[in-house]
Amino acid sequence: MYEHKIADIRPIELSPGYSARLIHTERMSFSFLEVKAGSASARHSHPQEQAAMLLEGEFELTIEGEPIRFGPGSLIVIPPDVPHSGLAITDCKLMDVFTPVREDFRKLSEKQK
């Protein structure tokens, strides 16, 4: 399928305050996130490269101990296996793209069907 309607995808709570609508292709995973102000993601890493683009709000990523605060239209690239965490300064909307596919997210998506 070539076209996906984001609004038609059932959201999944990844962690408290983080709601994601997930799409997977053969080689990539897309996560369209809505994050409540004050919600934090724990420090973690994964083998996928991640590109995080802020669509609305203000968000802070801490990558290898360095906080980076960014706003709409900014894109942050996180290399594979690099520890990072996040904090929503305001209510936010983000789009994360992962390559290769996040199989853990794919499994979550399949459970929601």
Number of domains: 1
Order of helices and strands: EEEEEEEEEEH
The number of helices is 1
Mean pLDDT: 95
Largest sheet geometry: 6 strands, antiparallel
Poorly predicted runs are: none
What CATH calls the topology is Jelly Rolls
Fourth-tier CATH superfamily name: Jelly Rolls
Count of distinct strands:
10
Based on Cα principal axes, name the global outline.
globular
The N- to C-terminal Cα distance equals 17 Å
Order of strands, widest sheet: 1-2-3-10-5-8
Q: Provide the structure class.
A: mainly beta
Work out the helicity level. Answer: under 10%
User: What is the radius of gyration?
Assistant: 13 Å
CATH uppermost class:
Mainly Beta
Query: What's the architecture in CATH terms?
Result: Sandwich
Strand content: over 45%
Task: Describe what this molecule looks like in 3D.
The protein is mainly beta and 113 residues long. The protein has a single domain, classed as Jelly Rolls, CATH 2.60.120.10. It is 9% helix and 51% strand. The protein is built from one helix and ten strands, in the order E-E-E-E-E-E-E-E-E-E-H. It has one helix at residues 103-112, and strands at 12-15, 18-24, 29-35, 40-44, 49-56, 59-63, 66-70, 75-78, 84-88, 92-99. Strands 1-2-3-10-5-8 form a six-stranded antiparallel β-sheet. It has a four-stranded antiparallel β-sheet with strand order 4-9-6-7, with no helix packed on it. Strand 1 (12-15) and strand 2 (18-24) form a beta hairpin. It is globular and about 40 Å long. The mean pLDDT is 95.
